[in-house]
Amino acid sequence: MDRILPRRLAKGDLIQVITPASPVNFERLSRGVGLLTQMGFRVRLGRVLRNLCGNPMISAPDEERRKEVEEAFADSEVKCIIASRGGYGTLRILGDLDYSLIRDNPKIVVGYSDLTALLNSIYRMTGLVTFHGPMVATDFGAEQPSKYTLEWFKKATMGEHPIGEVEQPSGYLRCVVKGVARGPIVGGNLSLITRMLGTPYQPEFEGKIVLLEEVDEDPYKVDGMLTHLLLNESIKKAAGIVFSTCINCPPPERAGKPINAITVEEIVRERLERIGVPCVYGFNAGHNTDIPTIPLGVMGELDSSSLVFKVTETCTS
Q: Is 191 assigned a catalytic role?
């Protein structure tokens, strides 16, 4: 399938906010919309945010959330689609989305966490490059939004050139397996990637640089998910692996329990060293304060020995 680059974002463009997962905090949403407006964009809320259903698990019935995504793509005035937040529920709409509509109306779509399902299914089914990056309430709506996050959002969605080396604010990046890998970037939240296995929408890992991140999980559960990928054998075909810092792993209320005595970094090393492809741990992506916007579907390069991860190809047109 031919790859499609969305048109780059410009000041004055209309951003539509979608909520294909859980209900959103309106105070944070309002701050996020305000920040995007200050950045020079027009912002419109999708149908779900105008009529939340009151379900604590999902923001609206599946049909409403599906329509919201399709309406955002169908509207020629909308240039960028950003999720309000993650949570749960995006998987439930993948099988009913009109991917032909999405392919025929390409535009920037941004999110992470539960949005991993939407980003990877769109790329897999249409070839449209998607963006693993900040969300309106979660990140733009923080009390003190990260300057790093804003800088990398603009660099990825508004720049004319490849974003190049993804400089890391934490300085924690560690080598797991030495080497150099090149290939298109795919991936996102580990839980969602695991749930997508065996479906038509799962990301293809062969020859790819796989980005993985997680939050609020017991280390033994991370071990189980990585073992699932190993047994499935899909991860063994990757060109390289970039594993993000795992925030609250284990969750604070479960810290100190014997089953969680091992760290996620130790698990990542034990599980992924055996694959033998270049791999690093400690990248900042997804559930972190300072997060880069990483395009999925364009070429990247990982030099794990030098701890350098680059996006080497332009991700917009």
A: no
Which is the catalytic residue, given 121, 287, 301, 304? 287
Q: Record the tokens describing residue 294, joined without a space.
A: 């990483």
C-alpha to C-alpha distances, 197 to 5, 126, 204, 205, nearest whole angstrom: 26, 18, 10, 11
Report pLDDT digits (tens) over 53-63.
Answer: 567 899 999 99
Residue from 68, 70, 213, 301 carrying the catalytic annotation: 213
244 is catalytic: no
pLDDT for residue 256: 85
Q: What is the DSSP string of 6-54?
A: PPPP-TTPEEEEE--SS---HHHHHHHHHHHHHTT-EEEE-TGGGS---
Domains of the chain: 14-145 (3.40.50.10740), 164-311 (3.50.30.60)
**Which residue shows structure tokens 């996020």?**
32
Which residue in 113, 121, 244, 304 is the catalytic one? 113
* C-alpha distances in Å from residue 16, one per residue of 43, 108, 157, 222: 6, 10, 15, 33
- Whether the pLDDT of residue 20 is over 80: the answer is yes
* 287 assigned to active site: yes
pTM for the structure as a whole: 0.97
Instruction: Give tens-digit pLDDT for 221-237.
Output: 999 999 999 999 999 99
Measured in whole angstroms, how far is the alpha carbon of residue 306 from the centre of its chain?
24
Confidence at 52, pLDDT banded by 50, 70, 90: low
